[in-house]
Design goal:
- By secondary structure, the protein is of the alpha+beta class.
- It has one domain.
- It is 22% helix and 23% strand.
- The protein has a six-stranded antiparallel beta sheet with strand order 2-3-4-1-7-8, covered by helices on one side.
- A hairpin with a 5-residue loop joins strand 7 and strand 8.
- The termini are close together.
Length: 174
């Protein structure tokens, strides 16, 4: 099943409000790697509702200005520098689950964050990589870009053993 390509232009047609949770993927294979990552494959589905995407055009401008004074420009630059991420978009609309329990926006957000964190943990087990940003969450704007409402702190890099510092995400196996 091929993933539908999500672009800023295609997101502009979204009428229902959407929220997002994302977790940075440090980098994709390239540079010194023998195998270059085929970015034409992006976005691609990891599991239902979660994709690895190029989010560099979606986290821009004043998105993180609300923390610049408190955390400093270097931390904000790291957050704004997120290029690739596991992304889960979801509707914040209240609903009921299969048992008939009420699910509000807060529960949707918690479940989304838990899903993305779990997938990121599995990815790090399979392919240990540096980590300069963690979970970021917020709302999808009308133009398709992301309005970050919060993020996990600290933003300091998660280091890996020296032998794994140049690991990047590789092309998915068909």
């Amino acid at each position: 099943m091929a993933a539908e390509r999500v672009t800023v232009a295609s997101m502009r047609t979204t009428r229902d409000p959407q929220n997002f949770s994302l977790y940075e993927v440090y980098d994709v294979a390239g540079g010194a790697d023998d195998e270059q990552f085929d970015t034409r494959l992006l976005p691609f589905d990891v599991v239902e509702g979660v994709r690895i995407e190029d989010v560099s055009a979606l986290l821009h401008g004043p998105t993180f200005d609300f923390v610049k004074e408190r955390m400093g420009s270097d931390a904000v630059r790291q957050l704004q520098g997120v290029e690739y991420a596991l992304v889960h978009r979801y509707s914040p609309k209240p609903a009921t689950d299969l048992e008939g329990n009420w699910i509000g926006e807060e529960i949707h957000s918690q479940r989304s964050a838990e899903l993305v964190r779990s997938i990121a943990a599995c990815l790090r087990l399979l392919r240990p990589m540096r980590q300069s940003a963690q979970l970021i969450w917020g709302a999808v704007k009308q133009d398709g870009s992301f309005d970050a409402l919060g993020f996990d702190s600290p933003v300091e890099s998660h280091e890996v053993p020296e032998a794994q510092k140049h690991f990047h995400l590789r092309n998915p196996v068909s």
